[in-house]
Structures are given as C-alpha cells and as structure tokens.
Design goal:
The protein is of the alpha+beta class. The protein has five helices and seven strands. The protein has one domain. 17% of the residues lie in helices and 38% in strands. A hairpin with a 2-residue loop joins strand 3 and strand 4.
Amino acid sequence: MLKVYIRSLGSEGLEFSLSEDANKMPRLFSEFYDKVCVTGKIVTHQDRYILSGNATGTARLECDLSLEEYEQEIRASFEIDVIIGEKSKNDEEPDVIYILEDETEIDISDSISEALSLALPMKRISPKYVGKELEDLHPGMTSKKINIGKEDKAHDDRWAVLKKIKLN
C-alpha cells in the first residue's frame, strides 16, 4: 500500500517519495513486478490536498512481433485530488479521494495502479525489433498470404445483389 502521511503538512507543501513491491498492490496489472516507485509533491488548498508527481515500475512484456519476453520501464504522471469531508450522494467525480478530518494518511495505491496500468504500451515491441516489419523477422509470412481470404470474399456471388442497391 502506498500511503502519504499528511499530519505535519505545512501550507507550502511537502515532497514525498514512496516505494512498494508490485505484488502488494492488488489492482496493479500482472505485467508489473519488482518495485513501484512514486515521487511527488502534496499541496494543501483550503479543504483539499492536491498530489502530483510521477510513478515508475518495471513491466515484463511480450513482443508482438517475435513473441519474446522483454522488460520495459513504465513511467506515468499523476494528479490526485483529495477532499476532506464525507462524500455526498451527488458527488460523482471518479478521480477524487474523500477522507475524514481526523485521518493521518492518504492511500494512493489504487490511483497509482490505474496510472501505471494505463501507461502500458498498446503495441508492445521489444527495443531490439523497433523499426522492423513482420516480414523482416518471418520471411515466410508475407502480406499476400495473409490477405488471401479477403480477395475470395470480394468475388462471392452472394453479395452481388447488395451491390445493385442504390442509396440516396
């Protein structure tokens, strides 16, 4: 659990640095292992705290081209609003954490897990294969062989009736 202590916080803010084992963060995606490190600053503003900073973690990913496993450091920036007081029924803000006045710490584990998980790359390509195409790695696979089924469907007589339909 990543917890920021807020008891002795002055009006000018406070910088913090936290780390936690990735296995101890329940909502963090399984690609992450080792430590998750968080650095940031917390600032007070009337009845709220604003936490901002960066989180880093190492992920074990599978390359989309070669299917080899590789490791990549994932970085994510975050900004978390924390409001002092109880959440009312009309409050629907998903990015806000509510705490009671007598609480001494803020648990930011879920927000950090979400930020890091969203920072995972959609296209996962190992650094040694960046800039290479699938045909370079697997010469037997060409785009013509992959698109064979698409050409056959274009000449299917069952669709000929639909081609004659005139749309305004």
